[in-house]
Structure prediction request, 149 residues.
Amino acid sequence: DILTALIITFIIILFFAIFWRDLMLLSFDPIQAKALALPTGFLHYGLLAALSLVIIATLKAVGLILAIGLFIIPGAIAFLLSKRLSSMLIISVFVNICAMILGLYLSFYIDSAPAPTIIIMLTGMFFLVFLRKSFIDKKNVNIFITGAK
Prediction:
């Protein structure tokens, strides 16, 4: 399992390292990508293949519920904290690592299953970030409306 995960990780990193700019352009402006004669079909299906490989490896390693949580919640947290894709990727990886470490540590001490504990940690992180972001946005709106600082 570890060897399979390492091979898939290497393939994914290599694919993104080679085609990062092209994938960014295709994701945000497919018409421009076609106008520049980029191999849009190859990039599109390559991205889908990369996603499929990651999903297969994750399901095999951690199971369905944890895999779904590890894909969705960190991305949602990163989206709340950043508007740049590169920053979102870094934030979501950091959030995943923190949730995994904290969830495993907590599950050991409260004698529970690790997967649900990790999902609870991710959900808690999301709600904290969501509440903080909502409070900051509300405060900024009030400053804008009243003109006060």
In short: Residues 1-62 form one domain. The helical segments are 2-28, 30-35, 40-62, 64-81, 85-110, 114-146.
